[in-house]
Write a structure and sequence with these properties.
The chain is of the alpha/beta class. The chain has helices spanning 18-25, 52-56, 58-66, 91-100, 121-128, 152-155, 167-181, 200-206, 220-226, 241-249, 287-299, 319-330, 340-348, 362-371, 375-381, and strands spanning 32-36, 43-44, 47-48, 70-74, 105-106, 138-141, 163-165, 187-191, 212-215, 254-255, 260-263, 269-272, 281-285, 302-306, 334-337, 357-358.
Length: 382
């Protein structure tokens, strides 16, 4: 399901809430409620490395349980190819769920069935009829991170059951909806990550909303090459050069790195300007750019950040990403981190508590800002 980009008032983003579900279903005591969660947690050696996503679902499930509802959870884990894989079984999650959310049942990984990603009506019917048990009385979507997917467990149940957003999803919609329709200005967006092609749509959309757009990460090299610079062996999408040049020539308020931290084929690390010799690879923004980007953040009143400034997993190329995170932490602006690697970075640097909102969905937050809606949200309203 592809949604057109739309202009919307902040109130248009509203989704039905848990209170709406209670009004629709009636007394929840004894009712069976299916809750779509996003428990796609990071795993290390078959163990949960970070249970934040499980903890994030607790407020919704607790609210339902306090009203006597029988809560049954469903989620995906990893990327099984439509068939069972032991390493992605929800059994890995069960002991932690029992501690964080006692009393909740959980259905096996929905992506073990090819009908999930295919949005099969048969698989939707299997879910709402109780996944082999007793049929459900209502459905709650609390999985913002997959609400940009037209998958069976996301868009199917609302066509057959009274449905609502969980607390986590409701908060995401409230924050990102306000940011898209009525941000405090100046509004600055900081985009990084690897590929321009992944974000060209959101770049064009954000340029209609933001006062300034900062671009770093691997995607900046396509822009720098479009300006006529030699980017050596840096990541660059030549098929996107024309699109980048058109954006630059349009006079759009885009701020690009003025210097780069680069690596030679022999392993030498050096600070360079916007051009670099053949064989060298840009892997982070330079200190001058980090300072300039930080100044832009401190001047803003709303900041959205999605995508690291470099290969932050390697400490040699983490300075740019760390500087952006620290600038957001020091800022008096309303700061939103758009999930994905950016959320991982602020967590690694110990900066998450200083952000106003850390989204649980990287791709979902970008698509929401670009399109103004997501299939999972539209399904709840419809």
């Amino acid at each position: 399901m592809e949604l057109p980009a739309v202009e919307r008032d902040v109130n248009d983003f509203a989704v039905p809430t848990l209170e709406d579900l209670e009004a629709s279903v009636g007394d929840l005591d004894g009712k069976r409620i299916l809750v779509r969660c996003d428990f796609n947690v990071p795993l290390r050696d078959g163990e949960i490395a970070d249970d934040l996503r499980i903890k994030a679902a607790a407020p919704t499930i607790s609210w339902l349980q306090k009203r006597g509802a029988q809560v049954v959870l469903c989620t995906h884990l990893g990327r099984p190819d439509g068939k069972p894989e032991k390493r992605f079984s929800v059994e890995i999650l069960r002991s932690r769920i029992d501690v964080v959310i006692p009393g909740a049942e959980i259905i096996e990984n929905v992506r073990f069935d090819p009908g999930e990603t295919a949005n099969s009506p048969e698989f939707v019917r299997y879910l709402v009829e109780g996944a082999g048990g007793t049929a459900f009385d209502g459905y709650v979507n609390d999985a913002f991170g997959v609400s940009h997917r037209s998958h069976a467990s996301v868009v199917g149940p609302p066509t057959m059951l009274p449905s609502a957003a969980g607390r986590l999803l409701e908060k995401e919609v409230e924050v990102l909806g306000s940011m898209r329709s009525a941000p405090r200005r100046p509004f600055l967006a900081v985009l990084g990550g690897a590929k321009v092609s992944d974000k060209i749509g959101v770049i064009e959309s954000l340029l209609g909303v933001v006062d300034r757009l900062v671009i770093g990460g691997g995607m900046c090299f396509t822009f720098l090459k479009a300006l006529g610079n030699n980017v050596g062996d840096s990541l660059c999408e030549d098929d996107q050069l024309d699109a980048c040049k058109q954006l630059i020539d349009s006079g759009a308020p885009i701020l690009l790195p003025a210097d780069i931290t680069a690596l030679s084929p022999e392993g030498e690390i050096r600070q360079m300007g916007q051009s670099m010799p053949e064989g060298w690879k840009g892997l982070d923004i330079g200190p001058g750019s980090a300072a300039e980007f930080g100044d832009a953040i401190l001047e803003a009143k709303t900041v959205f950040w999605n995508g690291p400034m470099g290969l932050f997993e390697d400490s040699r190329f983490a300075a740019g990403t760390r500087a952006i995170g620290q600038a957001l932490a020091d800022s008096r602006a309303f700061t939103v981190v758009g999930g994905g690697d950016s959320a991982a970075a602020v967590a690694e640097f110990g900066l998450s508590p200083y952000m106003d909102h850390v989204s649980t969905g990287g791709g979902a937050s970008l698509e929401f800002l670009e399109l103004g809606d997501l299939p999972g949200l539209a399904a709840l309203r419809n």
